[in-house]
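hey so i finaly got around to running the thing on Gcv operon activator from Pandoraea sputorum. pasting the sequence first so u can double check i didnt mess up the copy paste, my clipboard has been acting weird all day
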Amino acid sequence: MDLRRLPNLSALRAFEAAARLESFSRAAEELFVTHGAISHQIRALEQELGTTLFTRNGKRISITLAGRQYAASIRAALTDIAQATRKLQAGTRSERRLVLTTMPSFASRWLTPRIGRFIDRHPELEVELRCSAQLTDFERDDVDVALRMGKGNWPGLHIEKVLDDVFFPACSPSYNGGRLPQTADEFRHSTLLRSQDEPWAPWFASAGFDIPEPMQGMMYEDSGMLSQAAIVGQGVALVRRSLAVGDIMAGRLVRLSDVDTPCEWDYFFVCPLAALETKRVQAFRTWFLEEVAAFELVKDTRQRPTKPSRAALAAGMAATAGEMATDAQLGLDPAKLPDDGAPTHA
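ok and heres what it spat out for the 3d tokens, dont ask me to read them lol
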């Protein structure tokens, strides 16, 4: 085979995108070139092949049968090239670089306050944290580990459940001048902050409150922003425990009821099977599971510790607070803490 007679690679990429999207304009957007550049490359390819790949009817295009068959072969070839490139990059990539991805809310209110301890433990690693609500495609994206929230049905990957979650209402201690809602009537007349992922109706039903789902008021897409809105006193939010524990322990939020409702999604540690064998991912997994274990000690927000021992504090009470709460933020005086013994609860 004479590889010198292959068509121009840029023209083939333009053709594949236009065939897949059935649009020169959308192909141009995907490849970050102009509509005219796509049209010119495809016409040059047609002339080189001596075959019409698209029929033109004004601004509308339609792929021919020959074009459709050629596109399938070209797409397979380009996929092989992309996979070979990723394999090569994975083999030569520095073992010092660790790329993580998770949801913005979990990153800001759980992982970021803790990640400094991992960096201190492993200064040899270069850690990159990406935040996205989109599902990571490990075949396409340069990512080692994803901390996902969902059902755990992602075949072909290492999937490890690490946390579950619940919802409960919380607000700033200064909300409504400190007169915090407790009864159904008080909730009904409160400003209820809304979220697409956290409807109020299930919690109202569990609490025995005959209150309809609020249809007015501020709607937040991100759970971290929802918690922050409650912290600054905008209203009452239905928060996730995983994101609110630190703020409750630090006094920025107050839990308003012992009733909680389960979250239908869990947190998972997810990575490709091959990545799990690398030293960098093993190091992060070991540290992350230690942090989760420490968090389990303090996640019950219905029992706020008032006189924790030094041992309990070292086990993660202050260290695992969602905002890296200091002793002062928690209202604790280390000099007055007992040397041993279990923490007492109010």
